Amino acid sequence: MQHAEQLNVARRLLNLIDTQGTDRSEAPYLQPVSEYIDLGVAAREQEVFFRRQPLCLGLSNDLPDTGTYRVHDLAGVPILLVRDLEGRFRAFLNVCRHRGARLAEACGAARGFTCPYHAWVFSLDGSLVNRPDEASFAALAREDFGLTRLAAEEQHGMLWVCPTPGQSMDIAAWLGNLGPELGSYGLGTFSHYASREITRRMNWKLVIDTFLESYHFCVLHRDSICSTFFQNLGLFDAYGQHFRLVSPRKSITTATAPAADDSWSVLPHTVIIYILFPNTVVVWQGEQIELWQIFPGSSPDEAVMRLSLYSPTPALTEKARRHWDRNLEVVLNVVQNEDFPLGEGIQQGFHSAAQSHTVFGRNEPALAHYHREMTRALAG
Ligand code: FES
Ligand SMILES: [Fe+2]
Hints:
The chain is of the alpha+beta class and 380 residues long. The protein contains 9 helices and 19 strands. A 7-stranded antiparallel β-sheet has the order 2-11-10-5-4-3-6, with no helix packed on it. The protein has a 7-stranded antiparallel β-sheet with strand order 12-18-17-16-15-14-13, with helices on both faces. Strand 8 and strand 9 (128-130) form a beta hairpin. The longest helix has 33 residues, at 318-350. It binds FE2/S2 (inorganic) cluster and fe (ii) ion. Fe (ii) ion binds next to loops.
């Protein structure tokens, strides 16, 4: 976050603390329960959100060196992320052009990909470079059987992909005026420490909803994060469909007063959450970045997600690893033991006839914005 915006954020936060306020929307919002359970809605979401639009599938350091690759399966199509020998980020469908086998698994470094089925070989730029018994295929030009490319762009230290072949994207336009602020964190300089893939019995949007208000901090999280943050107090700012939430840490009240001097920073006294519409959550947690990629699972009642933790410098010592392991455990404990079990109960209740709508209060403006934008996008 740029310094001028940090001062603005600090001023607004201190004002909310003084007045015991929080950013509020104009009116409460009624959210249809059907959007969390309906098969038709889920199918439309796949088409609109997870096929045509850019998706953030990681940060730059997920592919640390030239020749590194990583598979990505959460989006519902098999994707292969590659940093080629020139350092350029590329994305392909992870599908051999001979008979369709998966070319790569997990992650690693390679000079090319040899198919495990009949050993066709593809280079890191996707070209087909060798096929055993060439004479049997000579009537089919090699150039026509390269890996299927997906639009891929590395911007602000983030890896963006559009999962449908032939579909183009423009990340600067997609992020709009949020781009420069995201750029200010230098996400590309962070090191990938660890990732966890998680499956839960709740709709994917319900996973995102857990990040979107501080009204529950000292109720659900009374024994965990309540002592660090303020209850029901935070900033909300929309950037088109994307948006930002800032929750102050209690340390902000004893910090030195905001100063024009560049060395003063509001960041250590906050947790800042960016929602990159529709399914990416970037969390600035003082010293670390968490990236949450959240996708629909096999039904509207299932979410699959990948949490990745990035540290400002590589964890090279045992002491550093202990530190980041502990941070990862803290994050996982709160969501896995507190937020997600509660969300799974909500999902079950959605299938009862208890109510046609749930309620977002004026103190939950991010929830209203998120779901209003989602409904609008699906209707369009
Ligand atoms: S399926 Fe890949 S070489 Fe045959
Ligand atoms: Fe929570």
